[in-house]
Specification:
Blueprint lengths: L6 E3 L3 H8 L2 E5 L2 E7 L7 E6 L7 H22 L4 E7 L8 H16 L2 H6 L16
Parallel strand pairs: 1-4, 4-5
Antiparallel strand pairs: 2-3, 3-5
Helix pairs in contact: 2-3
């Protein structure tokens, strides 16, 4: 039987700043930053934050509570051991329907778990030409 997943909270500012240097993805009402610690430790670090742009203290606290619960439900299946994750609330996090918030968290964690080299191999959608490059001299 495998060991249960070890989750530790990120509480200090340097931990959040370190995670900001990793990769990040935004989906719907959440932004998640992921830092691969590469220290051999099997635990997952989780941090939660919301800026004042999200709203007053009551709204920010509600948004963070919802993100904590979504992380508890999704991190076991979609998180990578040896990583730190910072969940950042966006404007609609507190009011987003629960199913949609879970979908946002799940798709973001899945995207972050995919190595960047695999993401680079996927075809991207070409941007439409603005017409400025088509000028003749």
């Amino acid at each position: 039987m495998s060991d249960p997943l070890q989750i530790k909270r990120l509480l200090r500012r340097p931990q959040f700043l370190a995670a900001a240097k990793g990769v990040s993805e935004a989906r719907g009402a959440v932004v998640i930053q992921r830092l691969d610690r590469s220290d051999g430790s099997p635990h997952i670090g989780l941090g939660f934050t919301a800026t004042r742009k999200v709203g007053g203290a009551v709204v920010r606290n509600r948004a963070k509570r919802r993100l904590r619960q979504a992380a508890r439900l999704m991190i076991a299946q979609h998180g990578r051991p040896g990583s730190d994750y910072v969940f950042i609330a966006r404007m609609g996090t507190a009011d987003r329907p629960w199913d949609r918030l879970l979908d946002d968290v799940k798709s973001t964690l899945t995207r972050l778990a995919t190595p960047k080299t695999e993401r680079a191999d996927r075809p991207s959608h070409p941007r439409a030409s603005s017409g400025q490059d088509d000028r003749t001299p």
